[in-house]
Amino acid sequence: MSGPNTDYDPVEVAAVSPAELEAARDAALAAIAAAADLEQLKAVRTEHAGDRSALALANREIGALPPQARKEAGQRVGQARGAVSKALTARQEVLEAEHEARILVEEAVDVTLPTDAEPVGARHPLTTGAELIADIFVAMGWEVAEGPVIEAEWLNFDALNLGPDHPARTMQDTFWTEPADHHVVLRTHTSPVQARTMLTRTPPIYVVCPGRVFRTDEYDATHSPMFHQVEGLAIDEGISMAHLKGTLDHFASQMFGEGITTRFRPSYFPFTEPSAEVDLVCFVCRGVDSDQCRTCRGEGWIEWGGCGIVNPRVLQACGVDSERYSGFAFGMGIDRTLMFRHGLEDLRTLFEGDVRFTTAFGSEL
Ligand code: PHE
User: Distance from the CA of 342 to the center of ligand 1, in angstroms?
Assistant: First the structure.
């Protein structure tokens, strides 16, 4: 074992002079006072109070001083460091308070202001429904045609084989405009659009016409003086009832699902001959156990619209060669179709513009 290290002779380290210490402290205090924001104060803290700052180095040297010098040096360095750290804390508080005050002003929200965040709503189910129907036909190469809702009596009636004395005129309770001798009506069906199309185009013609129509009906859960119809017209060589049936079966299954087909019942319309009522297979019970079905009330079928082979008299009135061409036409209510499709109980919900109703349909396409 070796003996005590008697010849140990540490190098005497001199304490930092009071002047140097004061200079370091004052530089630190000046920099702290000059720090304009929290970012700057952070840099000042590293420079003047961090591990490599003059004051930290002075502090570290105290341990190396001869014992008799330590106390005094320790006091001086301690005071200087204390002053700097106090100044840092005080400045930090001031700057934080300023920062918060500025944020409160800059990001102030006046909760009493009226909001401009309006709900975006949704497209009306009648619009999207009519588009859906149009798409089904456009996919088969048909075109969409539109016409005016205020229509000439001749186009609404006469051109469609409904002469002034035709008893079927009373089938459609008409809104007439004044003066009566102008012979202008609110169209009672979209068939005048078909007349317009035939008058301006040459066959082959495949058009579908969605639109608003008007009749002097009561306003209740199943009737409205304004409603929507879609009519289709196909004029070509050799068109038959079979084409009509195939087209409507396709339309029905696209609209209501695979397996929903149609049946025809003999009927009468002045503009078609022969004419038929179109029924749909009940899309709820599909004809199975229909006795229990509330939708078709035991029928297994639901009335959908009217159709037929275009009366040659209509073709002639609209300038189409009835020897060469034949055509079929059909028409049904869009509102009624949508009521079936979406299980709506009351027609009026479609017309009353309650955004809660519309929004429920979302962005269905
Ligand atoms: N226009 C007829 C109606 O409004 C419907 C229909 C159209 C019937 C075409 C047959 C052919 O009642």
Answer: 23
For ligand 1, whether the C-beta of 211 sits within 6 Å is no
Helix then strand then coil, % of the chain, to nearest 5? 45, 20, 40
> What are the start-end ranges of the E strands in the chain?
143-144, 150-152, 184-186, 205-214, 226-236, 262-269, 272-281, 301-310, 326-333
What fold characterizes domain 125-362? BirA Bifunctional Protein; domain 2 (3.30.930)
280 CA to middle of ligand 1, Å?
Answer: 16
Ligand 1 in reach of 333 Cβ (< 6 A): no
Q: Read off the pLDDT of each residue in 13-36 and give the average, rounded to a whole number.
A: 86
Asked if residue 329 has its Cβ within 6 Å of ligand 1, the reply is yes
Q: Is 307 in the pocket of ligand 1 (CB under 6 A)?
A: yes
pLDDT tens digit string along 106-152? Answer: 998 888 888 777 767 778 889 999 999 999 999 999 999 999 999 99
- Residue 320 predicted with pLDDT over 80: yes
Atom of ligand 1 nearest to the CA of 189: 4
Upstream peptide bond of 266 is cis (omega within 30 degrees of 0) = no
- Using alpha carbons, list the distances in angstroms from residue 182 to 166, 191, 211: 19, 20, 23
- The domains of the chain are located at 10-106, 125-362
The answer to whether 15 and 63 are in contact (CB under 8 A) is no
pLDDT digits (tens, 9 = 90+) for 144-155: 999 999 999 999
pLDDT, mean of residues 309-323: 97
